[in-house]
Amino acid sequence: MSKSLQLAFLISYIATISCTPEHRTSESGSQLIINVDLSKAKEYPISEVFSITYYIPLETDTSNLIGMIEKVVKIKNKFYLSTGKTLFVYSDNGKMLQYLKKTGEAEGEYRSITDFWIDPDSENIEIMDRKGQKIITFSSEGNFINEWKFGINANSFKKMDPETYVFHCSTYQSSSDLMYTLILKSKTTNKIIFKSFPIDPKQAEFLNFTDYNNFVSMGDMFTFLTSGNDTIYSFNRDKLEAKYVLDFKDRKIPNSFLTKSYPDVSILIEALSKTSYAGTLNAFVYEDENQLISMPTIKAYPTGKLDKVYVFYNKTNGETKVASRFNDDMYFIGHKDEISYESRPVGFSPGELYSVVETADILDRINSMKKSMSESEFEKAMADNPGLSDLSKNSTLASNPALKISVLKETRQILR
Hints:
Layout: H1 3-10, E1 22-26, E2 29-35, E3 42-45, E4 50-57, E5 71-75, E6 78-82, E7 87-91, E8 96-100, E9 115-118, E10 125-129, E11 134-138, E12 144-148, E13 154-159, E14 164-169, E15 180-186, E16 192-198, E17 215-218, E18 221-224, E19 231-235, E20 240-247, H2 255-258, H3 265-272, E21 286-287, E22 291-294, E23 297-299, E24 306-308, E25 310-314, E26 320-327, E27 336-338, E28 347-349, E29 352-357, H4 359-372, H5 375-384, H6 386-394, E30 402-408
Parallel strand pairs: 2-20, 3-26
Antiparallel strand pairs: 1-2, 4-30, 5-6, 6-7, 7-8, 9-10, 10-11, 11-12, 13-14, 14-15, 15-16, 17-18, 18-19, 19-20, 21-22, 22-25, 23-24, 25-26, 26-27, 28-29, 29-30
């Protein structure tokens, strides 16, 4: 793991959720207050949270071996995978269909893929290059169409409609007029439509966290979460309102702590390591009609050990599951699936979370199963799960990783 990714992981102090929600009314409307109880985390069988998990081995092409996968999007039974420099397209059975690599600084080229968006109808590809502060549009075949220099140092974006884009912005901007975390901008006029959450110049040096994701879209409404803010918002082109508040009680990072001056994020981490505080300092959010999910990590005080947890909040019945890890009772039987930066979701679609598993890890899991079972039990496990058997036969240390598909329970197909 690179130093920057280690930093991103170490500074992930996000909430866990208790099962007794309440509502608070403010000027922005009614908010669901989700009380935090850090003692509720425990190990869960995978089958208690997911209806099924399965793995798709990604075809290995020795001329285009996949590096670290940063984001996955599924459109029309195709998986689009970004590694920062290259966008790969795979079928839903793992066959590589094409790849797009247009690195450079000329028109139609990018220095890096900071984020991307796939049009659900035309399958046109829009790539955001943060360094170039532009979005480049390619056809589904990878042919250059146009580029838009939107002029914002952004971490991620979402296309709201053909004209309107929403950006989650970096703490470093070229102008004080752009020192906002959330900016909506028109591609047609290149003008700002709306901006919110001003960035405190004192915090710009140390609150520049790498979020796992910031946006989820449900119909015309979007869900938004960002580091340093324990409130989850909903918004569309016309309004923004607080929707959920993660209440950490006495573990909440006090405002006085974050209004101090820290030379950089490492000094903030050192200061936090001496406290028992918890808060949203790396963001992951998934929401559908029935549930809200985040992938938090919290620091256990006073040992300093990092405990990683998943939070599953059922909006229908108010039940919350806080998982410190998973016991695989569905695929790699008996494997303890730890929650970490490496196992985080790198994408989702309606009712599904996507993560990446390296082949070395797959082989270790298979070997562990083999050692823990009799020969007949292992043979039966392989016979009962053809996908596992194929993984065992075809995975080598030189193979590309596999996509892990985790299908959520009780999910209605409304995301896009």
